[in-house]
Amino acid sequence: MIQSNWGEHHMVDTEFAFSGAIGQVLRAHFERDCRSAVLSHVFRAYYLMRPCLPAFLRQRLQRSRNAGLSCPSDWYIPVDFLSDLSEALAQDVNAHSTAGGVQMSGHSVIHPWPDECQLAVSLTHDIETQAGLRRALSIAKIEQELGIRSAWYLVPHCYPIDLGIINELRAMGHEIGIHGYNHDGRLFIAKKIFDSRIGPINEAGIRYQASGFRSPMVHRNMQWMQALEFDYDASCFDVDPFQAMPGGIGGVWPFMAGKLVELPYTLPQDHTLMVTLGVSAYDVWVKKLDLIKSLSGLGMLITHPDYLDSPQRQQEYQRFCEHVASLPHKWLALPREIASWWRQRQASTIQADGTLTGPASERGRVVSLPSLFGSFSE
Ligand SMILES: [Zn+2]
Prior knowledge:
Layout: H1 6-10, E1 14-15, H2 20-36, H3 41-49, H4 55-68, H5 79-97, E2 108-110, E3 119-126, H6 130-144, E4 151-154, H7 163-171, E5 175-178, H8 191-207, E6 212-213, E7 232-233, E8 255-257, E9 260-262, H9 270-277, H10 281-294, E10 298-303, H11 311-326, E11 330-332, H12 335-346, E12 349-350, E13 356-357, E14 366-368, H13 369-372, H14 374-377
Parallel strand pairs: 3-4, 3-10, 3-11, 4-5, 6-7, 7-9
Antiparallel strand pairs: 1-8, 2-14, 8-9, 12-13
Helix pairs in contact: 2-5, 10-11
The structure holds zinc ion.
Zinc ion (ZN) binds near residues 128 and 183.
């Protein structure tokens, strides 16, 4: 029987980046993600049998499944969401222009990002294997030369974790996070399994001083995940038809899901572009980041040292890092820094005179909705 998690998901209190008609669109797309985020019979059976399947057979099954997916070439653009967003934006702006009297600043919102930044960019890596962990430092060096720090999510019960590498990453200013339990795809198959693993997951969080979690294969259940003792979760995405657990929240901003700050990834994964599709990851990342910039959004990327395994792939990643480093008005931040800022923004309010009070008042700013989506609505 396919498990319906819909009722449970409803129990999570959510607070989105914006209120008004745009907030309703964000909520509708999030709820749609919750309804969709269920594994099919086929995938449940697959994850149960997976430990017995040889690697070549797993890869063949994956390839034949992906070949069966028919996606438009711009599948990484959340078109449904954008069309709803632009309608809602017009509605919000009109509601204010017809409200009568002199509107001081139209529909005022707290800009999503601090310090006059226009977009946020966060580079993250899920480490799937011991070979990936061994490669981490060479990828980190590519970033370091460009002044970039990133986040590295470890699987705590899968491969031996070399503390020397972890400490070196930390010394370079990088962040360490936790990537599930053992990456067997079963974490969300049954509540009983999830409950038996949540203790060790939280312990790993303490052991590695991690403030963030990302679920393997981005499987998710927002209600169950309230048991995570982490500051943020990064297991949602705006759009990604290549994931076994379908869905997509459409929005490219963080939001509050119960006690967790949710940081969606919004740039397609290296594996999808480089391995599954064999297209230029650089071109796709740059194009998507342009869109995110026009939405004042969060560009969050997941790559894997496991797949950045050839000079050619590393060069492609390096080119994108160079692009990111050269972007004006970006906030290049660690996920934990973004989560911490987001809590400050959520706890701040716009006063009647248009000033900002609360923990975000120093670094934050009040802007009008049309200015926030300026280049998107043009
Ligand atoms: Zn993974």
